[in-house]
Design a protein that fits this description.
five-stranded mixed beta sheet
Amino acid sequence: MTVPGRRSSTFSRLLRHGFTDPSGAERLLDLPELTALRDDSVLLDALGATADPDLALRGLVRLVEAQPDEERQTLTSTLLSAKPFRDRLLGVLGASEALADHLARHPRDWQALVTYEAVDLNPGVAEFEQGLAEATDPVSLRVAYRRCLLAIAARDVCGTAEVAQTAAELADLATATLRAALAIARAAAPADAAHCRLAVIAMGKCGGHELNYVSDVDVIFVAEPVDGADEGKAMQAATRLASHLMRICSETTVEGTIWPVDANLRPEGRNGPLVRTLSSHLAYYQRWAKTWEFQALLKARAVAGDPELGGEYIDAVSPLVWQAAERENFVPDVQKMRRRVVDNIPAAQVDRELKLGPGGLRDVEFAVQLLQLVHGRGDATLHSGKTLDALKALAAGGYVGRADAAQLDEAYRFLRAMEHRIQLYRLRRTHLVPEGETDLRRLGRSLGLRTDPVAELNKEWKRHASVVRRLHEKLFYRPLLDAVAQLTPGESRLSSKAAGQRLEALGYADPAAALRHLEALASGVTRKAAIQRTLLPVLLGWFADSADPDAGLLGFRKVSDALGKTPWYLRLLRDEGAAAENLARVLSAGRLAPDLLLRAPEAVAILGDPEGLKPRGRDHLEQEILAAVGRADGAEQAVAAARGVRRRELFRTAAADLIGSYGTEDSPRELDPGALVDRVGLALTDLNAATISGAVRAAVREGWGDTLPTRFAVIGMGRFGGHELGYGSDADVLFVHEPREGVDEQEAARAANQIVTEIRRLLQVPTADPPLLIDADLRPEGKRGPMVRTLKSYAAYYHRWSLAWEAQALLRAETMAGDRELGKRFIELIDPLRYPAEGLGEDAVREIRRLKARMETERLPRGADPTLHTKLGRGGLSDVEWTVQLFQMQHGWAEPGLRTTRTREALAAAHSAGLVATEEAETLDEAWLLATRVRNAVMLVRGRPGDTFPSDGRELAAVGRYLGYGPGRVGEMVDDYRRITRRARAVVEDLFYGA
């Protein structure tokens, strides 16, 4: 009797044995059906050894209750007397609710777990065929399949079969099942069977002999007519047989389903015929197949149907697999495949994805398959469909480091074991690690983690995923370093030919040069070389992920040659997590940023500072530049210092733009193109304004000391005044001066002209720093007019002679440098001109439209594609800006929001005022941003400005990567540009031309 308030001894024993609901377990043990079992301590120990003792006990009760009276005694006595059977049955019941359901429905199937012969420990296809032999319809096939599955699961959970053997047994059971299903289909249509020879080729995990408990079984069907049969009719018969086979396995019956049979890996996928002849298969693979299709064929294996035809298929396609690396599109295809395919995983599930998430099973499988494709053409030992066997062969051949291969093998086995146990619970196809405490506890215990199953499971899972993440890229690159450094005697290593093949497959256009760079960087026993060998495997992966890996590696060598003896440089890359990846992205994204960096490599420190990529404001820049000018001995030295600051800040801006556009492992790419464009435009405008201020100060000090005889201001125009500068933009300006009191006007004019001449000269003196080109062609009378005027002269000109285009150009005028008060009075002078009271008259509007139409026909460069020219082309910058500026001149007098020099701000104001509909405003904004980003991309990639897409393939791909288009998607990028700008042009026709 239990004393009130105290737990029974059974309750305590149940807790010690791992039950989470000991009260419920007590009630179950008290059921009359378990009378013969309840007092047996051996049973309690066996239940406690299962993954989930509560689940195992509930399953056992259901099984005992389902037994016919004459069988119940046999089951209980066998359970108590036969330890192997007891462990197997309870192990399955504690790990799989689905198999417990099966046993409750088919109570005699427990006998499948009693036999314990030697062959039972290592069954093959023949044994599984025998187990399925009596199945004559889909329902009986499902029952027999589950009965066979019971034995596989028992060996798995009891540890008699390790994970690779379990996967192989599941694949063998699938093979036997496909054969049985085909036999049922043939029996249902003997006439069809007589017309054709049909072979079933297993693909994917089934073909690779590494199947999961619940997975699509990927297949390809190949058929030939029997002698004398019509080919068309034979193919129709084979298609009916194949379709029936798929339904037999896939359809849901009273006994559920087995698994989906998926034939989408066939030529042309779901759009292609289900069944083809062998010659049709070969014709497709030789002419049309993509790289991923040859990667899939790595695992092809004939499993059912006509064995001779299946063998012919494998013999015919195998040589094509190992020639895939020589195909023209292999490199871009590989680059495309290597990019993570996690975009389609819901954000909430990424961290739980065992297969596709970072550090998941797919990372190992893809890496191994890619190395097989690259090196298997010359080494038949790599021709294996099994991931772990292939990994072992890669290590034996020196294609993968032995230590790396051993760690990956261990991690892959653990992750596959997790996947097996997750799927076994309910026999559902999933790769998500469960979230519930009970599920995690069962999963942890099933893997032998008993002290604190949940915590231990999470720790082990994260550790193995981290190993995969860390080694995934190094797997490709570490052997390359071993090949050139040759520091480990006796270790198998890549030959120069194999190393070159691997680099070529990963996107390096000049593998010989790449190997020379690696040798220069990684050879030797110095501390520098040792750190480089640690860094390079990861850096090489980032370079290969770009459009120009060769440029990235070359740039890294140049930076390292310049800074390699500087203690902080390698320490920065090694210890600052983001610095190395940021450097890799910058060096491999184009010419502009690396050129800026190599002129002063110490700027690499910017990449390791969390605040380093943020642009400096104009006040901060002016303060630094004016202080440098004040310390200099002469004007040229002063402006050289200012240009040095500008070069550093140009690099900061370009680096931040590239990293924001590409994204890094820790920081996703910026998805708002408006934020990127605005950030670049503002940063470059502030930088050029501060640089011009420094040049003005230097020129004044050199010629006149502290005070110039005339007040002097620089007015920004065009993109400069609009805070919309790109990397390749000149600084459009007007110069205005006003003689100081008592100074002769001629003397003042002479001083002003000397200042203009001197600052233009100083900012363009040939040095290592990029010049700042000053363009004053928007001044009154253009190139024929005086370079600088007094404020009175501007007033007189604008009052008497001003043309419509000049008023329009003044919409973007803003003071940038020099005398702020004078600049303010200039702006007050021009405001009535650019925002005329009551807006523009009809004649003025017609004149602006006429000028725009003339510009479109006359200024577009000869031979340029008008659909792709970012400035003057259809729906480009000019279209959008002239449309917005027309609204500013017509309505700026009444709408304060339109009185801005910035295009996007003015467009938003026009929308807020109801002048532009929402959809039209969004269309114009999208086109303007895209055209601006293309221009910036061209300058970043080529190192020189351009208004259209590059013709060079690598440069075009790099522009695409900057814009967010992955490898092989440049055609999509160009199509998108044409579509977006075409829509913008339609809006311009409506709003600007009044069509």
